Amino acid sequence: MKRLAMLLAGAALALPLAAGAQDAPGTAKKDSYRFLIVPKVVHPWFDKVNDGAQMAAVALEAQTGAKIEIVYSAPQTADVVQQVQIVESAISTRPDGIAIDLLDPEGNRASLEAAQSQDIPLVLFDSVPPEGMAIPFIGSDFCEQAKIASRRLVEVLGGEGEVAIMMGVPTAPNHSIRAECHREVFAEHPGIKVVAEGIDNDSIEIAQQQAAAIMQANPNLKGWVASDAAGPIGIGQAIIEAGKQDQVTLVGLDNLPEMLEMIRSGVADSSSASQPELQGYWSVMLLWQQATGAPVPQFLDTGNAFLTKENVGE
Amino acid sequence: MSTEASAQTARPSFLSAILRNPLAGVFIALLAIFVISCLISPYFLTSYNMSVIARGLAFVGIMTIAQSALMILGELDLSLGTIGGLSGVISGMLMVQAGVDPWISIVLALVLGLLLGLLNGFLVTALGLHSLVLTIGMAGVYGGAILVLTKGVAITGIPASIHFLGRGDAFGVPVPFIVMVVVLLIALFLTLKTPMGRYMYAIGNNAAAARMLGIRVNRIRLMIFALAGMLSALAGVLMVARLGTAQPSIGQAWVLAPIAAAVIGGVATTGGVGSPLGGIFGAAIIAIIENIIVLFGVSPYWQGVVSGVIVVLAISFDALSRRYIRRDSH
User: Residue A188: which CATH number?
Assistant: First the structure.
C-alpha cells in the first residue's frame, strides 16, 4: 500500500515534468516529415541547393529515425506566376514545411500568406522576405558577395577602365541587390566607368547573347561582373567567342562547374561564391526545427567563398 | 414489353447524340484526367486545391477564349501575351506612379488592349500580312515596350482595393474564375447565337466565299482582333491584382499555352472549326496536369515529358473517340 502511494506520488510529480517536456520548444515529434524545396527556376545552382537539402534529410533520418522526404519542385522558367502556382499547389499537399527562393517578394506575398494561414512552416533561401512578413531566411550577404567581386575587378584593372554589369533577373531581390552593390563599388572609383548593363534572366544563353552584343558596342570594355550564377558562364563563353581572353577580365559569381572550369582555364580571373549546398542543408534544418516547435533565427548567414586559380582545385 | 423495347432503342440514340457532339471527346478526356487525378492524389479533390486550379485556369482560360475566337476566324495572334503584359504594366504605372484611380486605370488598360489588338487587326487586313508572322513582330514590339517602361523591375504598391479581383473569392469561387466564366458565356453567345458568330465560322472556312456572300470580312477581323486584345488586357490586369505587383514577366506564359489549349479543345488552326468552350476544356486539362505534377512531386526535369505525354494522350483519346463516334453514326 505504501509502495502504491509512493508510485502515485512519483507519477504525480513526473506528470507535470512530462507535460512540460511535451510543451517545451523543439520537442514535438513525428514519424515522418515531407519538406518542399521551390527554387526560382530549373537551374544547376539550385541542383546544388537540392543536394544540400537531401544531405540534411539523410542526416536527420540517421539522427532521429524519422522518415524525411524532400520534394524538389522547380518552375520551368523564372516566372513569378509559375512559381506562385507551384507554391499554391504545394500547399494543397499539406507539407511539413516549404523552402522557397522568391522570384519577387511582393508577387509571392499572397502565396506565402496562404501557407502561413495554414500553419505551414516557411523558410526563404537566397532571398529576403516581403516587407512586414516574419519568415526566417537563409543566404549569404548578397551585397558583400557582389562587392568582393567588383572590388577584385577594380583591383585587377588598376582602378581604371570601362566595365559592364550583368544583372540576372532584375525583379529577383538577390540579383538586384548584387547589381546595386556592384554599382556602389564602381562609383567609389572615378577611373572606372560602367558603360553597359545587361539582363540575362538567369539564362546562360541570354547572358552570352547580351555579353556578345555589349562587347561589340563597347570595344574598349575591360571587365565584367555578374549578379547571378548563369551570367558569368554566358559572359565567359562570349569572351571566348570574341577571342578577348587577354583583353577582358571576368570576375564571376558562384561555383557552378562551368564557372570553376573558366577559372582553371584562365577565362575568368576569379569568382565570389555563395554556398548553395549549405543553403539547402540549413533550409531543411530550419524547416524541421520549426516543425518540432523550436524557435529559429530570423537570418542565417551561410557565407561567401572567394575562388581563384590557386584554391579552386582540379 | 413494347415500352421496354422502345426504351432500349431510345437509350443508345440519346447516348450517341451526346457522343456525336464535337466536344464529347475532349470533355471525356478532361473527365478521365480529373478522375485519375482524384484517384492518384489524396490532395487533389480538396476545396483549397480546386480553388488553386480554378484561379490558375482563369488567366490562361481568358487568353484561350481570345485565341480561340481568332483561330475560328483562321487567324493567330502571338502577341496577345505581351498585350496582356503591357496592359498590366501600364495599369500598374497609372495606379502607382501617376496616381490615377485604380478603376479608371483598369478601364484605360482595357482600352489600351483593345487598341493594340485593333492595331494588329489593321496591319493584318490593311497590309494583307499573315497574322502569325506579323504578330511575332508585334510581340517583340510590345515585349520590348514592357522592358523600356519597367527596366525589368516590377511595379510594386498596387492599391489593395483591387487585390480582390485577383486574390478574392465569392462564395468560395475565385473571382478571376467567375470573370472567366462570364467571358466564356458572352463568347459562346456571340459565336453561337449571333450573325457575327456565323460570319466568323464562314470566314474561317473560306474567306473569299464569305466575301462573295456579302460578309464584311475585314470588319469582322478587326473586331475580333480588338476584342482579343481587350481580353488579353483583362487577363493582364487580373494578374496584376493577383500578384499585387505589375510584373514585366506577365504574359510570357500566355503565348503557346492558349494555342495548345484551343487545339486540344478541338479548335482548328486552319479556321472555321471549334468553340471557345472546347478551348476552355483544353485549358482545364493543361491546368490539371500542371497541378497534379506538383501534387505528385514529379521531378522538374521530367515535368515537360510527363505533361507532354498526357497532352498527346488526351488529343489521341479525342481523335479516337471521334473516329468511334463517326463509325457508330454510320
Answer: 3.40.50.2300
Tell me which residue range forms the domain holding A281.
Answer: 32-140+276-302
CA atoms within 13 A on the CB side of B284: 23
Q: Do A69 and A159 belong to one domain? A: no
pLDDT in tens, chain A (314 residues): 445 454 444 444 444 444 444 568 888 889 999 999 999 988 888 999 999 999 999 999 999 999 999 999 999 888 888 899 999 999 999 999 999 999 888 889 989 999 999 999 999 998 889 989 999 999 888 899 999 999 999 999 999 999 999 998 876 778 888 999 999 999 999 999 999 999 888 888 899 999 999 999 999 999 999 999 999 999 999 999 999 999 999 999 998 889 999 999 999 999 999 889 999 999 999 999 999 999 999 999 999 999 999 998 76
The secondary structure element, H or E, covering residue B101 is none
Q: Closest chain A residue to B55 measured between Cα atoms?
A: A85
Nearest residue of B to residue A104, measured between CA atoms: B154
Q: How far does the CA of residue B261 sit from the closest CA of chain A (Å)? A: 17
Query: Do residues A245 and A166 both lie within one domain?
Result: yes
A91 at the B interface (CB within 8 A)? yes
Cα–Cα distance between A258 and A54 in angstroms, integer? 23
Shortest distance between the Cα of A4 and any Cα of chain B, in A, equals 49
Number of domains chain B contains: 1
Q: Are A239 and A167 in contact (CB under 8 A)?
A: no
Answer yes or no: do A245 and A219 share one domain: yes
| Domain co-membership, A108 together with A188 | no
**What is the grid cell recorded at A149?**
567581386
Identify from B147, B164, B243 which residue to disrupt to test chain A contact, counting A C-beta atoms within 10 A and taking the largest count.
Answer: B243
User: Is B127 part of a structural domain of the chain?
Assistant: yes
Asked if this assembly's ipTM is beyond 0.90, the reply is: no
Residues 21-50 (A) with a CB less than 8 A from some CB of B? 42
**Which residue in A90, A94, A107 is closest to B245 by CB distance?**
A107
CB–CB contact A85 B56 (8 Å): yes
Cα separation of A151 and A173, whole Å? 21
Helices (H), B129-249: 131-150, 164-167, 175-193, 195-205, 207-212, 217-243
